């Protein structure tokens, strides 16, 4: 059922992609619910200076509307045409583009590199629609989901056995307790490394004004976190030095599956913090989850360097927990 398939290509052992194609997946679900035919195109192999990494998605609607990218614009037009054909007949198709191929110049991949794109109808027997729901459920629950595609049959299933393996990471989130100077640097830094940050501070003077390019929640931390619901892809960092704010936030975080919990302050202040939390019933194993003082020991000085140390420690904690 596939065109331009090349059986001489080596099988792919597996690809773990950090790219989160949430918008593409959400668009595919919306279009399906509206009655449209949909195809999903995935970069399955790259060589040289390919513009997108393996695992990148492009979803295409039956009328040509699309979301996502497989080449940064180089071959999207050709992929969209092929996808509309796949939607019409069902099944799948493999597309190979390379600088040695005259067709690469025709479709725009003249800058170097080669890519292979696997196009599947979002339908039973190819990419089952239920997998889109599973991806969203895992993403929203902070879980990782692995899908395997058999490149000979064109069928994708949950699991880690197949010619092409795609690991989907959940949405990474960060709750910052305290609208302080460190938070002003940590918010954009978190965005750059893929975290959606929320600042929580009930002190009106701190939260007022356009100081943050992020959501600012002016409720008390326990109330805000009860709605925010920290999950296994969430980090909570307390920066206020005020036990009335930090302690309640840390307690809420400890009752969750948050992968990173940290609090600013000296070692002496942290020891006092642990005693207060122990009095609330948290045992040693729970308290050991708190990184205190927050951040890697890089000799940080000033808000920007402290924010850097916190961001680095947060990434390290995620990489220990998440798949490689």
TrEMBL record:
Residues 174-314 form the XdhC Rossmann domain. Pfam families: XdhC_C, XdhC_CoxI. Residues 31-98 form the XdhC- CoxI domain. PANTHER family: ALDEHYDE OXIDOREDUCTASE MOLYBDENUM COFACTOR ASSEMBLY PROTEIN (PTHR30388), MOLYBDENUM COFACTOR INSERTION CHAPERONE PAOD (PTHR30388:SF4). This is XdhC family protein.
């Amino acid at each position: 059922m596939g065109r331009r398939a090349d059986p001489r290509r080596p099988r792919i052992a597996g690809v773990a992609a950090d790219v989160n194609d949430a918008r593409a997946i959400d668009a595919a679900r919306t279009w399906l619910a509206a009655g449209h035919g949909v195809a999903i195109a995935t970069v399955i192999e790259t060589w040289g200076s390919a513009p997108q990494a393996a695992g990148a998605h492009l979803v295409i609607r039956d009328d040509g509307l699309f979301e996502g990218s497989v080449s940064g614009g180089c071959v999207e037009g050709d992929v969209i045409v092929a996808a509309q054909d796949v939607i019409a007949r069902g099944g799948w198709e493999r597309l190979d583009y390379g600088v040695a191929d005259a067709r690469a110049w025709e479709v725009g991949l003249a800058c170097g590199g080669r890519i292979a794109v696997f196009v599947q109808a979002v339908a039973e027997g190819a990419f089952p629609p239920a997998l889109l729901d599973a991806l969203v459920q895992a993403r929203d629950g902070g879980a990782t989901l692995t899908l395997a595609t058999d490149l000979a049959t064109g069928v994708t299933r949950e699991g880690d056995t197949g010619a092409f393996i795609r690991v989907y990471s959940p949405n990474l989130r960060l709750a910052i307790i305290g609208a302080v100077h460190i938070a002003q640097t940590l918010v954009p830094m978190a965005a750059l490394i893929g975290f959606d940050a929320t600042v929580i501070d009930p002190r009106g003077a701190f939260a007022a004004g356009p100081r943050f390019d992020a959501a600012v929640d002016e409720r008390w931390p326990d109330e805000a976190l009860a709605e925010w619901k920290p999950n296994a892809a969430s980090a909570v960092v307390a920066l206020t030095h005020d036990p009335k704010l930090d302690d309640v936030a840390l307690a809420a975080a400890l009752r969750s599956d948050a992968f990173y919990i940290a609090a600013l302050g000296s070692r002496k202040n942290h020891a006092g913090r642990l005693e207060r939390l122990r009095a609330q019933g948290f045992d040693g194993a729970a308290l050991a989850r708190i990184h205190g003082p927050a951040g890697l020991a890089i000799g940080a000085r000033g808000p920007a360097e402290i924010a850097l140390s916190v961001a680095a420690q947060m990434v390290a904690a995620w990489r220990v927990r998440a798949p490689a």
